[in-house]
Amino acid sequence: QVQLVESGGGLVQAGGSLRLSCVASGRFFREYVMGWFRQAPGKEREFVAGINLSGGSTYYADSVKGRFTISRDNIKNTLSLEMNSLKPEDTAVYYCAAQNLATVVITITPDMYDYWGQGTQVTVSS
């Protein structure tokens, strides 16, 4: 079992930056592929970014590629998402998630993730 707690959300103007953090406790953090997802009002939860076990491989949704950077620290059991050049369409609740142990390939489907944080709100004003 893994417990995940996000922080770092807030209100920012378009073009600004935010850094989200996710602290993990419980089972060994380094055993899990990790991902960030987001959900805007009235929309389905969507994949934002994923990172493999070592942190050496990452994958991004096209909508955030070049603006967001995912990273992990397996000593501090933390997952981060650096968000730059934010746009109003980035407004959503952001969730960190731990993928099912059965696969070590980064997947974009929410159903493949077993553990979720409570979410942190990011609001980008125009």
Structure characterization notes:
This protein is mainly beta. Helices cover 0% and strands 51% of the residues. The protein contains no helices and eleven strands. The strands form two sheets. Strands 2, 4, 5, 6, 9, 10 and 11 form a seven-stranded mixed sheet that branches. Strand 4 and strand 5 (46-51) form a beta hairpin.
Biggest beta sheet attributes: 7 strands, mixed
Helix content: under 10%
Question: Residue-averaged pLDDT, rounded?
Answer: 96
- How far apart the termini lie comes to 40 Å
> Over the alpha carbons, how many angstroms does the gyration radius reach?
13 Å
C-alpha geometry: globular
Taken as a percent bin, the fraction of beta residues is: over 45%
> What is the strand tally?
11
Keywords summarizing the entry:
single chain; 126 residues; mainly beta; 7-stranded mixed β-sheet; 11 strands; 51% strand; globular
Summarize, please.
By secondary structure, the chain is mainly β. Helix content is 0%, strand content 51%. The strands form two sheets. Strands 2, 4, 5, 6, 9, 10 and 11 form a seven-stranded mixed β-sheet that branches.
Explain the layout of strands and helices.
Blueprint lengths: L1 E6 L2 E4 L4 E9 L7 E6 L6 E6 L6 E3 L7 E6 L4 E6 L8 E8 L13 E4 L3 E6 L1
Parallel strand pairs: 2-11
Antiparallel strand pairs: 1-3, 3-8, 4-5, 4-9, 5-6, 7-8, 9-10, 9-11
